[in-house]
Amino acid sequence: MSNLSTDSANDKPEEACGVFGIFAPEEDVAKLTYFGLFALQHRGQESAGIAVLDGEHLLMHKDMGLVSRVFDEEMLRTLTGEIAVGHTRYSTTGSSRRVNAQPVLSRTRLGPVVLAHNGNLVNSTQLRRELLERHHTLVATTDSEEIVHAIGEAVDDGMDWISGTIHALKRCKGAFSLVMGTPDRLMGTRDPNGVRPLVLGQLGERYVLASETCALNIIGATYLRDIEPGELVSITAEGLTSHRWAVAEPKLCIFEMIYFARPDSRMNGESLYMYRERLGEMLALQSPVEADVVIAVPDSGTPAAIGYARQAGIPFQQGLIKNHYVGRTFIQPTQSMREAGIKMKLNPLPDVLAGKRVVIVDDSIVRGTTSRKIVKALKDAGAKEVHMRISSPPVTHPCFYGIDTDSQDQLIAATKSVQEIAHHIGVDSLAYLSKAGMFEAASSTGTNFCAACFTGNYPIEVPDSMRHAKLMLEKPTVAT
User: Fold this and answer.
1) What percent of the chain has pLDDT over 90?
2) CA pair distance 160, 151, nearest whole angstrom
3) In order of start, what are the domains of the chain with their CATH numbers?
4) Positive or negative CA dihedral for 88, 93, 96, 102?
C-alpha cells in the first residue's frame, strides 16, 4: 500500500502568525494568553511568546517551538501583570531564529512598548533604512521590529501613545494587524485594507484582542466586533476608545476564509464552517461527476467535501485518516523509509475506497506535490477512479501580504493548464471552483476581499524589487 511521506505536509500556503492581547487586572493574563495562543497555533508553529506589563514593570518569555513547548505552568506563574500580549509565529519575513520571535520590544521615554504583528510590510526596506539612519539598533530581521521602533521614535520625539502610534502606522505600507501593550494600555489596529483579521472580545468587563474568534471562545470571552480597517483601539482602566487613522478600503484576504482560519471562527460576519460548506455546494453545481463516494483531504477540505456530497447526492465518507499528533518533528525518516511509504500524516482506508469512483475535495493546490501523492495512495488502496475537486480557484500568483507562498514559477497553476495539472497529479478529472462562485458563496461582495493569489490584482502597491523577486517576467500560462 502506498502512503504519504512527511515531506508532503508542506504543500500548502502558510500563514504568518496569530496575535492575542488582554487587559484584565483581576485575571491571570499570562495563562489566558497561553490558551488564546493555543487556539491560534494553526497560524504559526515556529515560535511563541508572551509579554506582560504592570505599570512600567515588564516581563517577557519567548522561544522557538509550539506554544505548549515554550510555556509550562512554572513559567506562566512568573509572568504576572495586568496587560498581556502574545504571539505565535510562522516566518514570512526574517529567518526562523529565536531573535525574530515575538512580541518585539522598544523602550521609550514613556516606558516599554511591546508589539505582536500578523502580516507583511511592503516598504520594509525603506523603513529599516530610515530607522538605521536615525541610529536605531535593530537586532532582528523582521518588519515587526521596524514597526515597534517607529512607534518608539515617535514617542521619544514628544508624542503620546496614541498620536505616536498613529504617526508610526502612517509610515507603514502593507498588511498589518497589530496588538500592542504599554505601561497603561492595550492597543490594536489593522491596516487600511484590513488584509489580516483582528477581532475584539469581552471577558466580564475587560477587553480581549485576537486574530480569530476561536481564541475568544477558548477563554470564555464574548465576540463584540471586528477591528475596522484603519482603526486603532486603545484599552485602559477607563475603558475603550476608538481612533480612525486612515480611510477604510476593506480587502480581507479571501484565503483566510477558505483555508487559514479555523472553521469554528467567524470572519467578516461569516461562520467559516458554513462558508466552506457553501463553497463545496457551489463546486458540485459547477463541476458534477458520476461517483460512488465523496471524501475530503482532512482536515481543511472536510466542510467543502460535506457540502459537495450533500449537493451532489453522493455519500460522504472518511477515505483518509489523519494522524493529528504529527507536528513539526526533529526526527526525520530516512530516505529508505520515505521510499517504503512511511505512514506519518495520512492513511487511506481500502474498505471505503476499493472499487469505488471517488471524488476527493481539497481547498487548494499550490505545487501539486501533495495532491500527486494523495492520488497515488488512493489508487494503491483500490480506488477505481479519482476525481479531484478544489473549493477555490487556481493559485496563480504569490502573496506579498503575509502568506508564505512560493515564487510564481513554483505555483503549478501559473505554468500549467487544468488538464496538464490533472495529468501531472494522476487524476481522472480535475476541476476548480470559479472566482465568481467563490465570491457568490460569501455574504459579502467580491470587492470586500483581496484575491490577488487568484487574480494577480494586488490592492496594495508592491515595489518593483519585491515583484521581480517572486513574479515571472513573462506572462505565464495559467490554469483556467
Assistant:
1) 75
2) 10
3) 17-250 (3.60.20.10), 273-324+332-456 (3.40.50.2020)
4) negative
Q: Which helix (H) or strand (E) is 414 found in, with range?
A: helix 412-415
User: By CB neighbour count within 10 A (0-12 exposed, 13-18 middle, 19+ buried), where does 86 fall?
Assistant: buried
Angle between helices 143-156 and 161-169 (to 10 degrees): 130
Cell of 204: 466580564
The neighbour count for residue 407, using CB atoms within 10 Å, is 12
- Residue 452 CA: distances (Å) to CA of 193, 218, 446, 462: 13, 32, 12, 12
pLDDT at 171 > cutoff 70: yes
Q: What are phi and psi of 433, to 5 degrees?
A: -70, 145
What CA–CA distance (Å, rounded) separates 147 from 168? 7
Whether 172 is catalytic is: no
Q: What is the mean pLDDT of the chain?
A: 90
Residue 140: closest CA among 115, 161, 162, 157:
115
pLDDT digits (tens, 9 = 90+) for 382-406: 999 999 999 999 999 999 998 877 7
The closest of 400, 328, 291 to 42, measured between CA atoms, is 328
- At 53-107, the pLDDT tens digits run 998 899 999 999 999 999 999 999 999 999 999 999 875 444 556 778 899 999 9
In this predicted model, what pLDDT tens digit does every residue of 299-332 receive, in sequence order? 899 999 999 999 999 999 999 998 876 554 445 5
Pair 305, 295: CB distance under 8 Å: yes
Give the pairing of strands 17-23 and 83-89: antiparallel
CA distance 432 to 32: 41
Q: Which of 17, 172, 214, 453 is labelled catalytic?
A: 17
Where are any strands of DSSP class E within 245-333?
A: 252-253, 266-267, 270-271, 293-296, 320-322
Cα distance between residue 166 and residue 246, in whole Å: 9
Among 65, 63, 137, 132, smallest CA distance to 105 is for: 137
How far are the Cα atoms of 44, 52, 465 from residue 72, in angstroms, in the given order?
A: 19, 16, 43
